[in-house]
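Q: Hi! First time doing this. I have a protein sequence and I read that you can turn it into a structure. Is that right? Here it is:
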Amino acid sequence: MTNRLVNSQSLYLRKHAENPIDWWYWCDEAIELARQDNKPIFLSVGYSSCHWCTVMEGEAFSDLEIADYLNQQFVPIKVDREERPDIDSLYMQSLQLMSGQGGWPLNVFLLPDSLVPFYGGTYFPAEPRYGRPGFLQVLTQLRDYYDNEKDKLNRISEDMLTALQQAAELPAEFKQIENSSLLNDELLQQGLEASIRVLQPEGAPCFPMMPYAQTALRGTRFQLDKDFVAQPRCDQRGFDLVLGGIFDQVAGGFHRYTVDATWTVPHFEKMLYDNGQILEYLSNLWCSGTQDPAIARAVKLTVSWLKREMMASEGYFYAAQDADNFTSPQEREPEEGAFYVWSAAELQDQLTPEQYQALEAEFHISKAGNFEGKIVLQRRQPGVLSESAQEALQRLFERRYGAGVDREQSFPPARDNQEAKSRDWAGRIPPVTDTKGIVAWNSLVISGLARASVAFAEPEYLTMAAKTADFILNHQWIEGRFYRLNYQGTPSVLAQSEDYALFVKALLDLVEAGAPDYLDAAINVQAEFDEHLWSDELGGYYNAAQDTSGGAIVRERAYTDNATPGANGVAAMNLVRLSLYGEELLYLQRAEAVLNAFLPILQKMPQACPSLFGALDWFQNATLVRTTASELAQLKGRYLPATVLKEVNELPEGAIGLVCQGLSCLEPARDRNSLLAQLEQSQSRVGIG
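A: Yes, that's right. Below is the predicted 3D structure, encoded as structure tokens:
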């Protein structure tokens, strides 16, 4: 017996299609039903590769007694947070206001008339354990509260709605008169130091924190205090990533995070957004001068993984791969990390003595293992792997995927559990892949590939990036509106601010990498972004357009960075870049308006918004270089994070380049040394340090 989610395009929603719960998806019809029947709404938000979402689906959501009570007393609604990040963001903030913490699955209870939450939590076990009440106990108590404490509920509702509205406009204590003179060197230094501080090791778990790493890397251009020397911490973050167990040392691609402080044992899901950002970061790190072979190897293998396992034939990239996989078709439940780990006996059986010895010398290997008796491969040091170690890893690749499968050969995804267990795999049964395309996450990969194509002189990477951009440009518009998702060729859900901002960035990154024809597309997408999501009243961009179906009760503007960059910070960076490409001051004025809109956040919460500080760096140090094709080729491979390079045919007589700082230009540079000296000075002309 299935519920209405069986017809959903979302893999996450379909995973709940056989629950005995009468699930709705987020829509006006479900909300109206709750109002007519006077039932509170149980809203549950998660995503397909979320481990504890999977656990709750198999426990509480599959329990007949719980389902019967939930169906009678509530209107249950399921939301895929990757489809509707605006809904997820709003109710995650609500949960954090109520409990001081958040996470997924996100489970909140809403008043039907106002859609304001009155209680929430994350994982609820079917039976009391882990110090948490059983889910049925929670449900019965909340229904009783809903029926008998109307006055208290109304007060809670009013207080919560007020708090959400104030948070959307910025907290009252953060408000102040706009003052552009406060967008200054001192503020930028404060933001750079905050991001550098975030990269300091602080224990488990360990997340890539790419928005912070990218902003910290900007700090390498400045003479900061000795406690905030950026390059060593940025280098260390790069080596933690490429040497650690968070990187799939056998087949490429980065897992989401590690559960320990040594970057050894990952939570095994692979998210597209992490891999796109890490590609860009490692490429920038390489261009900044940290050019270790381990970095180049990780980039190459990650691009191979993207091409082999994550790229649809049409050109877009899939969203994620699960942390769990089945070890045999007979297993009822998948096992975490089984696709990736090895026993010591298995390694000895699969490898020659010479290969095993090389692996043991160059990786951390013990018979006891480092993950539930198994081994997650983690390198001991950077540099080049020995030939024997590389042969050993190739043997393990063949064991995992099946002999004869090439690293560049397309490997078909398992689209759901049934497909994973029923297909005749040549090697291990792979994790399920969520095959939806998400514009924002694809844009992060376009940017990563574009930057890697320059850093590592790999034109194929640029070709891959352009193919993805072309797919989005040709398939994600319906009747003049941009759409966020693609399900096997079908666009779905109006684009949100992160889709616009990151796609404009991706198009500009293609231009920077050597594909100038994408500039007009970037200008057009930015114009649509401005039309539908710009806030004239508050400044900055709303998360979702006003006409998004099933709109949220409060329109938020994303300014904080999490696993992905904050949309307003990226948007402001784009606007400065567009002002330099087109030499159009209106873009610069709008970038300034974004920064002023969030100036109180920049001042009082610098640790929350690294992308806004990246935008401030662009605003303070914006540099345009007009130069020849030959000089442009030389400059592309340098780390120039606040510079636009523009090929021109006409320069002053005898000049090879013209460096412009904001609204003024320096003396024409007549040789390469002069050009580089001017560029270095312009890139760090603010008085930091």
